[in-house]
Amino acid sequence: MMDFLAVPFGWVLKACYAISNNYVVALLIFSLAMQILLCPFGIIQQRNMVKQAKMRPMEYIIRKKYAGRTDRATQQKMQNEIMELYQKEGYSPLKGCLPMLLQLVIIFPLYQVVIRPLQFIGGIPKHVCASIVTCFENFKNGAGELVYSLPKSAKEVYVSNLLRGMDAGEIDAVLSQVANDKGEVIVSSEQAGEALSYFVNEGGELIDTVIPNVSIFGQNLGEQPFSAFGDFKGLWFLLLIPVINLGLMYLSQFVSKKLNPQPQEQNAAGGAMNSMKIMMWAMPLMTFFFTFTFPAAIGVYWIFRTLLSMLQQFILSKIFKLPKYTDEELRALEKEMKDAKRGQSKRPDIVYNNGEARPYKSLHHIDDDE
After folding, report:
1. Which one, of 195, 281, 196, 211, lies nearest residue 246 by Cα?
2. Are 156 and 118 in contact (CB under 8 A)?
3. d(CA 239, CA 224)
């Protein structure tokens, strides 16, 4: 299923690479294309936030009514009133969640496109790519030692970079080794010949048009930043990728809060405020972990997407502006609602004295209490 969904995205990335002939630049163009594709979902989210902001005064009054009371029963009652308000105004929080869920569905095939450049950029069939990776994983030197140590994920990215540094004879040597040291066939001779035909022509000359250049400043983007601890001198540059992602993700959430402040942040209790602070760091730290353990190409793609997302959010916040209410306006509305409520509750048998009600007793109503 993922391969089926990844095919159209693969066409886009292949076109991006054909334009730039550079994998990093292709990732940038690809990220821009995906951001444009997902822009309608961003518009839905922004319009949904505008609708929620219009209900801010009413929600503010509800939250203020229960301010300082953190017991579960009170908090549950407050949430019920807020949900009743949402239903009355025809607002659904799920409308904001749907675009995010759709983006998650899209990100999985995108991930496959990014980590499989030989298949989606080079145009090599999937089963041939598998044979090539298997040959590299099992290739041994004359002493019987494994020559290449491939990462657990994004092996195609790593192999693609290795292929660019090899000549036709070296590629032939790797792909022609069809058995391991135990004599077990790992790739049939037919499979090895088919794989070799994509890199070496009949005259024995190298065909490098199917080998994308998956590197930046000489660094293999198929490597995991975590591997820099084993070869800091050669791979230290890759450590910058997860660090940049961490900073950009935190900045993205900070910018989002500034551009689209949520009403519940204004009156959050201590526990709720702590939860918000935790969420501010949870997503950046999760991104840091993934980009630290995934191939560096994923981290580069994530950097571009975060930057473009912030730019889109800034533009949409200017087009679909959130209504803002001052504290004075909120207090005036609160007083107006209280006055209206008092007016609705007045009865002939109640005496109102400075806003306080007390039962009106007379000889005519002496049995009212009973």
Report:
1. 281
2. yes
3. 9
Question: Which range has highest mean pLDDT (184-193, 199-208, 309-318, 331-340)?
Answer: 309-318
Average pLDDT taken over every residue of the chain: 77
Beta bridge partners of 289: none
pLDDT for 196-254, tens place per residue? 888 888 777 888 778 888 888 777 787 788 877 877 777 788 889 999 999 998 898 88
Backbone angles phi, psi at 44, to 5 degrees: -60, -45
- Give the model's pLDDT for residue 272: 46
- The whole-angstrom distance between residue 96's C-alpha and the CA centroid of its chain comes to 15
Q: Spell out the SS3 assignment of the chain.
A: CHHHHHHHHHHHHHHHHHHHCCHHHHHHHHHHHHHHHHHHHHHHHHHHHHHHHHCHHHHHHHHHHCCCCCCHHHHHHHHHHHHHHHHHHCCCCHHHHHHHHHHHHHHHHHHHHHHCHHHHCCCCCHHHHHHHHHHHHHCECCCCCECCCCCCCCHHHHHHHHHHCCCHHHHHHHHHCCECCCCCECCCHHHHHHHHHCCECCCCCECCCCCCCCEECCEECCCCHHHHHCCHHHHHHHHHHHHHHHHHHHHHHHHHHHHCCCHHHCCCCHHHHHHHHHHHHHHHHHHHHHHHHCCHHHHHHHHHHHHHHHHHHHHHHHHCCCCCCCHHHHHHHHHHHHHHHHHHHCCCCEEEECCEEEECCCHHHCCCCC
Contacts of 338 (CB under 8 A, 6+ apart): none
Q: How far is CA 127 from CA 25, 148, 195, in A?
A: 28, 20, 9
Q: Which amino acid is at 280?
A: M
CA–chain centroid gap for 350, Å, is: 59
**Quick one: tokens of 346?**
């007045």
Nearest by Cα to 67 from 339, 331, 264: 264
What's the pTM? Answer: 0.72
